Amino acid sequence: MYDKKELEQIRKQKEEWEKKCYTPLIDKHPERKKRFENLSNNEIKQLYTPDDISHLEYLKDIGFPGNYPFLRGIHATMHRGKLWTMRQFAGFGSAEETNQRYKYLLSHGETGLSVAFDYPTLYGYDTDHPMSRGEFGKCGVAISSLKDMEILFQGIPIDKITTSMTINGPAAIVWAFYIANAENRGIQKDIIGGTIQNDILKEYIAQKSYIFPPEPSMRLIIDTFEYGSQYVPRWNTISISGYHIREAGSTAVQELAFTVGDGVEYVKWAIKRGLSVDEFAPRLSFFFNAHNDFFEEIAKYRAARRIWAKEMKKLGAKKERSMLMRFHTQTAGCSLTAQQPEINIVRVTMQALAAILGGTQSLHTNSMDEALALPSEKAVRIALRTQQIIAEESGVTDTIDPVGGSYYIEWLTDEMEEQTYRYWERVEKLGGVLAAIEKGFYQREIAAASYKYQKEIDEHKRIIVGVNDYNTDETIDIPLLAMDEKGEERQIKRLNKLKKERNNQKVQRNLEALRTIAEGSSNMMPAILDCVHSYATLGETCQVLRDVFGEYEEQAIY
Amino acid sequence: MVERKIRVLVAKPGLDGHDRGAKIVARALRDAGMEVIYTGLHQTAEMIVEAAIQEDVDVVGLSLLSGAHMTLFVDVAKLLKKNGLDEVLIIGGGIIPVEDVPKLQKEGIAAVFGPGTPTEKIVEYIIKNVKR
């Protein structure tokens, strides 16, 4: 990016600066640490100059927002044109309670919905299944049938607002609940917009809410790609997620490498099915974490966009729409402290700022009390206000990619890209993504990184304010969310009533039809939709697939 | 005579897949010289107690983020007692609201370690409180 002569001069003067200014100073006053490193344990230098990014070519490697390789953003106007969607992940108790929370969030300026499901729902069990014991509504809302979905969105304009649903193993079925609910309300499939997470690879790698073995899981996912691109064109049929990989303890580089690598894997499977890249790729979306190391996070998002654009081109994408990476971000839940919970507001602010400077399309900001329990209404409102303050008051949205061109940021972006490709080579050597999962490669990498991080904290090599330094002994005093104790009872009553009142012959017929399709190789979505339309429950529908596909069990590695 | 190592079963009851904490604790206890058995995910109370019997453990460590601890931790504690394993030290960790801690202690979960606990604190606690 610089001419040779100028670079030569910069190099020379930097050497001189080190010799005359820097070294004498640190001889007298040593720096605070012997080695400065980021959260991926990469060494960070004291200063970056044009010399560190001299190999980059502006037009080829950096370019313009809305143009390949999309390093500076996916739109020509970015946040000047449209702010990111403020989308708070929410769900608890019964559909009634969560419906109220959604209305509350929307009334406070939230611009998109994001559904958290409870554990039974995530595993495709109804509330009355023995494995659901103790879990009803705890980590999200319980949705056992189309009936619950109807209640969840009662009075919410799903033709206008988009909804993201964090659901993976039974994603196709829960998506069918959403589609069926829209159809019953007279809203056509091609109108509704939203996202299903539907990313099973990261479940095996990190989040562990898997049901079926990899092969049939991948088939279900490609079925949703195919069905979505034909009938639900405004829906993102997958959100390829690094968030959970990071929460499980990975570094930023691992999050980047494993997630974008998973993305490439899905594309390969879809191509193998015979789908055309430019038909399904525009509906692929991503989901990243926003952790504590401010610049590293920004560089991560930028690198992700550039890698994705390059890889999609290699995979045969012709449309730009197929090459640009749209992503949602959530601030790092694992960075929240139970100690002095109020200070989490500050952490979340910085993490959110990194995501915004990194060009996110959508953002969830965590509530201060989430290391203690589900967030209270007030805590959620403050988290949402944090986004609104950044959007309206800080001025960071006034120009596109304001950190672009920083010697440090551009160097780090490039470095993270390099390290990603090195990880991919290792995965390739193991036989690809599925083989690497089966061999426990990702799981071991993440467990090692998370243990290292914990040791650094235990040994005071890394300071976490309020945890291993700057402690207080004040008692924690924040209001916690109280849940309706009658919720579970109501839910089970509703299930029993449903099973009595629906046309059970039709349900059985539809479930059997799904079984036949599952045993074959056709797309399962139409049969799943028939099941849910006849009010077959999540558990019943999922059980058919469990019977046909079996269940996955992992080798526990620590 | 060689002293027998403290034997710990680290277990993940229920459907919750958040295993970061359990794995860190398992590794830290192993590094501290204990014999650690990690059950893996999705364990019922029956499976955990069965493993505790089979492995003849001194300590059962339960980890849960999902919020189902009042049911699932208590299930395990009751079943351990029912099987005569009164001597086994039960500890828990995860996202546990402060107000639930005394209730869990009443049910036999001797100590609860929340987020931010240094691993050495858990090691020390076990060494001090293990009954054998």
Describe the protein in words.
Helices cover 50% and strands 7% of the residues of chain A. Chain A has one domain: TIM Barrel (Alpha-Beta Barrel), CATH 3.20.20.240. The two termini of chain A are 46 Å apart. Chain A is of the alpha/beta class and 558 residues long. Chain A has a 9-stranded parallel β-sheet. Chain B has 5 helices and 5 strands, in the order βαβαβαβαβα. In chain B, helix 2 (45-54) packs across helix 3 (69-82). Chain B is an alpha/beta fold. In chain B, 52% of the residues are buried. Chain B has helices spanning 20-31, 45-54, 69-82, 101-106, 119-129, and strands spanning 7-11, 35-38, 59-64, 89-94, 111-113. Chain B has a 5-stranded parallel β-sheet, sandwiched between helices. Helix content of chain B is 40%, strand content 18%. Chain B has a single domain (11-129), classed as Rossmann fold. The two termini of chain B are 16 Å apart. Classes of the chains: A alpha/beta (558), B alpha/beta (132). Chain A binds chain B through residues 119-120, 122-123, 125, 131-135, 138-139, 203, 207-209, 247-249, 334, 336-339, 370-374, 447, 450-451, 454, 457-458, 464, 466-468, 476, 480, 554-558, and chain B through 14-20, 22-24, 26-28, 38-42, 44, 65-68, 70-72, 75, 95, 97-99, 114-116, 118-120.
Oligomer: heterodimer
Mean of the pLDDT scores of chain A?
Answer: 96
The number of strands of chain A is: 9
**CATH topology of chain A, what is it called?**
TIM Barrel
Q: Pair with the most extensive interface?
A: A-B, 46 and 37 residues
Total beta-strand segments of chain B: 5
CATH architecture call of chain A: Alpha-Beta Barrel
Give the DSSP E fraction of chain B (strand runs of 2 or more residues): 15-25%
- What class do helices, strands and sheet pairing of chain A give? alpha/beta
Question: Biggest sheet of chain A, strands in spatial order?
Answer: 5-4-3-2-1-9-8-7-6
